[in-house]
User: What shape does this take?
Amino acid sequence: MLGPESKGTWSGARAPNTGPIYQFLKAGQRYCVVAQFADSDGHNHPIGEEWIFLGYSFLPYDDGMSFFVSLDGQHEWRIRLQWRTDEQGEILDNLPRYVAAAT
Assistant: This one.
């Protein structure tokens, strides 16, 4: 997980491979990790970790998925995942098993 960065660093990016909605994740909504996972930077995301989803970006040449989130409502972080079987493919293929809407 990379950050913190100032507001708009990643959420302000607009390109064909970015957006405010990914599957069930919607920008501005709060989500909670329900099954621990490690991102491609080796950062562990424990059960109970909460963040506000800001958007995503996908880089097909590297199978790279980035989720842009805010932990505090003031700064932005980037959660990098690699959509490959030997990396975080399981997480991205089964995202609802790992992340859910916060209650």
